[in-house]
Amino acid sequence: MIKVNLLPFEDRPKARQMPLPNKWSVLIYGLVVALLATAGGMAFLQGNEYNRKIAEKQELDAEQKILVERTKAIERLELRTMLLQERLNVVGLLENIRYDNVMWLNSINRVLPEDLWLTSLTRNEAAGRTTLEGLADGYGPVAKLMKSMELNAAFSEVQMIKSERSSNEDNSLIYFNVVANWGTVRKVAQTATKGGSK
Predict the structure, then answer these.
(1) Which fold has domain 114-197?
(2) pLDDT tens for residues 32-71?
């Protein structure tokens, strides 16, 4: 069956035609697209920059953590070194004191005569003074003691502080108190050591 449109040509329905955009509309659309593309590119770049900054911050945090641990380890090592040095200083001081005491007692032992007994033996390290107190079988041993100390290079300025008969039952014993400087032996030994090392 064939359809025939009997309406006049001007009354017939016309097909829709889409109007073409003018040049201003195209320009506006182009600008909008360009802006959107630029915004998208900037957002992408900023996202990459943000991720890069985050990665750098994580690396810096890790390095800082390592540095803090190493700093603490160094501080612990310095503390141990300081404590060890203090112990070595104490050991050195004790060694010097032991050496001095041995030399001091040896010096006294060399000058003690027979028939003489010490009841007290003191040493003032700061002043270098040695005090000997004791009992002797008469004044002879006391005189020998002082003479021996004067001839010994370890003693100087030997002085008799007190010498009297003991108040014990045996009146033949003499109580004495003698003081002298001590320390020459150590100085002579140190000088000889320095001279020999050259």
Answers:
(1) Gyrase A; domain 2 (3.30.1360)
(2) 888 888 888 888 888 888 888 888 888 888 888 999 999 9
